[in-house]
Automatic annotation (TrEMBL):
Encoding gene per record: zwf
EC number: 1.1.1.49
Family named by the database record: Belongs to the glucose-6-phosphate dehydrogenase family.
Functional note: Catalyzes the oxidation of glucose 6-phosphate to 6-phosphogluconolactone.
GO molecular function: glucose-6-phosphate dehydrogenase activity; NADP binding
Organism lineage string: Bacteria, Bacillati, Actinomycetota, Actinomycetes, Streptosporangiales
Alphabetic keyword roster: Carbohydrate metabolism, Glucose metabolism, NADP, Oxidoreductase
Domain of life: Bacteria
Organism: Nonomuraea gerenzanensis
Protein name according to UniProt: Glucose-6-phosphate 1-dehydrogenase
Stretches assigned to the Glucose-6-phosphate dehydrogenase C-terminal domain: 178-452
Enzyme class: oxidoreductase
A Pfam family assignment: G6PD_C
Length: 456
């Protein structure tokens, strides 16, 4: 187990909202040894005292689930350094120390290549690890280049391309439910399943994150990584084990099986849109183009939808719709598995049975199965819903990820070839959108999203 963690991007949103609280949860759970050292680094140039005070405030705000003593222990022991993450002279002292270090790049993705180059030039202690956040690169070419650069610094097993969706118990429940239940896996194929929807609709708007989001957009921020990873868990063949090799080999099989999209497919099977001014949960939200820090000329989408097909024995004939949007009227974060109609309904048993739908609620956690049963009147049918509430997770998703990084278990991180393959899946969409083959629609904030478009 590695005992040193250096977080670059100390005063950023990710560190404040997820990493520091996750460390407090790990501290409370007794997972961090007495020798554990945390160094937070950025270029703000605060004093250590100021940073510790800020960290304590953030922990109170975002980490209240962890006991006060654990929060205090994290805030009072953190070391703070000023450094430009792209300067070898600056990063050297931040990573120097006794034994290997895990370096967490909680930085804007555009800074990753400069930081990895600086780490290479400064040199890392043997056995060190590098953790990168999504999106991994900005397109296929930059992902390939970043993989090459990383391989000059540490071996592939020491690169953790984290995707916190994979560590969410709700997401893991998709795989757990499939593989641990006799009733599901035999019908988990295109003979029985017509459509799978993987949806992350949120009522949150930009919330001041233009600096990052305006350069990425919904497709690169959500679909290319989180939603494709969920697709992999839904569609993968049963792995031999949940070890890193078996799990990641089966995931990449899914990505490789995605039928390449032609321009015509992109025109018919994808949608993109931007929110206009509106009201969400009683709050006025400005149009995306008017949000502070947004360059309207970039035409960044805040809604993206892509429908994919998989070319495989198991899935040929099922559609997979991946959809995400910001500033929508309601939060809908789920995987909905829609089964085909029954082949025959005996006379006298109602006119039509609604298809069964199995829903995995990703946030908040839930699981429901829509069935059909006998209704009150003779010869009528009525919907029945079975609902289950899975137990709460022991650790927050980032706690589990950080523990895996420190322990060296890469099963839940994305392998280099997977990251490239995920870009390959979406390259046709990025290319067609950049050529305006798909219009940039709009939708009022607080609505259900853009209206369906007639495609000729
Ligand atoms: P922020 O913009 O909030 O924070 C980025 C941090 O990096 C800031 O502290 C910034 O400092 C610092 N930084 C930028 N350039 C340098 C540099 N050259 N040297 C030193 N520090 C630098 O971004 P987030 O925290 O939101 O995101 C970080 C990463 O995490 C991104 O890759 C994002 O995609 C990913 N992520 C974020 C999530 C979130 O909810 N926030 C969720 C999942 C992933 P300064 O203020 O000086 O620019």
């Amino acid at each position: 187990m590695i005992n040193r963690l250096a977080v670059f991007g100390a005063t950023g949103d990710l560190n404040a909202r997820y990493l520091l609280p996750a460390l407090a949860a790990l501290r409370a759970d007794g997972r961090l040894g007495d020798r554990f050292e945390l160094t937070c680094v950025d270029r703000a140039g605060w004093s250590e005292e100021e940073f510790r005070r800020w960290a304590a405030e953030q922990l109170d705000l975002h980490g209240a689930a962890a006991p006060a003593e654990a929060r205090k222990s994290v805030a009072e022991s953190v070391r703070y350094l000023r450094a430009d993450a792209t300067s070898a002279a600056d990063v050297g002292p931040a990573v120097a120390g006794d034994g290997p270090v895990a370096v967490y790049l909680a930085l804007p993705p555009a800074v990753f290549p400069g930081t990895v180059t600086a780490l290479r030039d400064a040199g890392l202690p043997g056995g060190s690890r590098i953790v990168l956040e999504k999106p991994f690169g900005e397109d296929l070419a930059s992902a390939v280049a970043l993989n090459r650069l990383l391989s000059e610094v540490v071996p592939e097993q020491a690169v953790f391309r984290v995707d916190h969706f994979l560590a969410m118990t709700t997401v893991q429940n998709v795989l757990g439910s499939r593989l641990a239940n006799r009733v599901l896996e035999p019908i988990w194929n295109s003979a029985h399943i017509a459509e799978v929807e993987i949806v992350w609709d949120e009522s949150l708007a930009l919330e001041g994150r233009a600096g990052y989001y305006d350069g990425a957009g919904a497709l690169k921020d959500m679909v290319q990584n989180h939603l494709l990873q969920v697709l992999c868990l839904v569609a993968m063949e049963p792995p031999l084990s949940l070890g890193e090799r078996d799990l990641r080999d089966r995931k990449i099989d899914v990505l490789r099986s995605v039928r390449p999209l032609t321009d015509d497919d992109v025109a018919r099977r994808t949608r993109r849109a931007r929110y206009l001014a509106g009201r969400v949960a009683g709050r006025d939200v400005p149009a995306y183009a008017e949000e502070e820090g947004v360059d309207p000329g970039r035409r960044t989408e805040t809604f993206a939808e892509v429908t994919l097909e998989l070319e495989s024995w198991r899935w040929s004939g099922t559609t997979f719709r991946l959809r995400t949007g910001k500033a929508l009227g309601r939060d809908r974060k789920e995987v909905a598995v829609r089964f085909r109609q029954v082949p025959y309904l005996p006379h006298g048993l109602g006119a039509e049975a609604a298809p069964n739908v199995l829903r995995f609620g990703l946030e908040p956690e839930s699981m429901t199965l829509a069935l059909t049963g006998i209704g009150a009147g003779a010869g009528t049918l009525a919907p029945l819903t079975l609902t289950a509430q899975p137990p709460p997770p022991g650790l927050p998703a980032y706690g589990r990820l950080l523990l895996d990084v420190l322990r060296g278990d890469a099963a839940l991180s994305i392998r280099g070839d997977e990251a490239e393959e995920a870009w390959r899946v979406l390259e046709p969409v990025i290319s067609a959108w950049s050529r305006d083959l798909v219009p940039l629609d709009d939708y009022p904030a607080g609505s259900h999203g853009p209206a369906m478009r007639e495609v000729g």
